Each structure stands twice: as C-alpha cells, then as structure tokens.
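Board notes (copied after class):
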Amino acid sequence: MKVLTSEQIERLKNTAWDGLKVIPGDDGVVMVEQFRSAGDPLLTQREMKERVREIFPDKGIKIHANVWEFDSDTVDIEWIRSNMNDLGLKAKDLVRQTEISASNISLILNGKVRLTKGVKAMFYYFFLSYRLSQKLQENSKIFQEKVVELLHLEE
C-alpha cells in the first residue's frame, strides 16, 4: 500500500471514535474491526466497509470487515454485580426495570441459577442501554447549556 496521506492518518485516528480499529496492510488489504464500548453504534459489515472506503477510495484496495459479535461468556454474576456497582443500581432497580421477580433476581445474583445465553444477553443489553441513556442525558444537558450560552451571546 502507498504511504498514507496526512488526511488519511487523521481520518484513521477518528475511526476510533466510531469504535472501529482500522489496520492498513502492505498487501493492498485494509482490515477493519469493531470494538465495543457503551455508546458506540453497532455497525453492519456494509456500514464498516463504507466508512473505511471513504478513507481509502482506491477500488484496488480490498477491505475486510470483522463485525462485532456478542460473546455471552463475558457476562457472569461478577460482571452483573460490577455493572450494578458502576451504575449505582440495587437489586430492586433490576426488578423494577427488567420485570424479573425479586426472588429470581436474588437467585441470579447469589449464583443459585445458571445464566442462560438469553438471560446473559438481556443483562448485557440492559446495562448497555442504561449507559446509553445516561450518555444521552449528559449530552442533552450539555446541549441545553450551549444553547443558553449562545442565546446570551446574541443579546
């Protein structure tokens, strides 16, 4: 692959904001994979390739995209408890927000029942959506503050 332009280098740095890791190879192949953190959008393989194609428009460059997949092995009782702690949630909050009975939440948190893949996925996406909701609220407050600031500047 040719030497990257300064614009390409800058745009590659910005792909991390989208949760993408882009690795240009010497053989005319660009690898792109998605890593996850709360707030990053889940992209399809096509969307990933389109974003990378904007950086590398040369049709001779092949783009290989590895789409993020949920791994249920990452979710266990300690992971659930850690997320609850990070977010300041109690068992009663899980009961109220997931509609899982208090007795079942207790069994889950005390390791008395096996976590099925479906239950693990439910907890994963529950905590992900909770974090996204918090980020939206934070960004909404920042946006409102900026609007007020701009209105005061115009006076």
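Comment from the instructor: The longest helix spans residues 117-154. Helices lie at 6-15, 45-55, 77-87, 91-98, 102-109, 117-154.
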